[in-house]
Amino acid sequence: MRSLAVVLLSFASLVVAPATASAALPACQHFYTGPIPDRPISGGHGNGTTAPPYDVSGRLPAPGGISGGLGADGKVTFTFNRVAGAKAYRAFRNGQALQWISDWGQPTLQVADASPCAGAHYQVYAMSAEDTAASSIGQISTSYRLDSSNHLASYRMPVGTTLNYRVSAYNDVAQTALGYNAGTGICAVDARIIPWGTRLYVPGYGHCYAADIGSWIKDDIVDVWFPPGSAADNWGIQRLTLTVEGV
After folding, report:
1. Domains and CATH numbers, the chain
2. Which residues belong to any copy of the 3D domain (predicted)?
């Protein structure tokens, strides 16, 4: 289990889902329901180098043309465009796998969420093979959320948004929850708040790309990746002002 800490954040700096759209839906719950230990700020430091922007340019492009919304049946349903070379697709809600769609030439590629929640982030990626190998996974799409008319609309945290977080570190050597191999420049977030694909600048660390989640990554927490060794321990738990750089 990773060493994490609960953080206080002023949500005034975030763009939130319209109240009209969220009123009819329950609040999105964190996927982990167990106890999360509170960890005091310990201070710490980076390893003396700056993490470069994480490169996803060699991957299949993200599906586009996402269109849909909340229907009278209480489901959020949406369609999206094919990606050339894709064999399958995966859809997510708040970083949790929602649906797998194999591409066999069907007229419509469609996703349905039978249990939507207020302000949920819907995202999709394409795969070059019908497996979850890191090499086959494409770029994650922009987040889509219900607008005031209950239609899905693209959502991005505005560039320059600042977040006052406590930041801890991890060094798991495995695939991230999104599916990319963990590595320098990857960070884990609460995907109910920060959509996957968001790029952040972390003082003392460098650039990080939101592509992971974790049982203790809840509410206002970010976990930055270090290679195995003492670097993660040296980082400690720090309160920092993070800046959104884009997607």
Report:
1. 67-155 (2.60.40), 161-246 (2.40.40.10)
2. 188-242
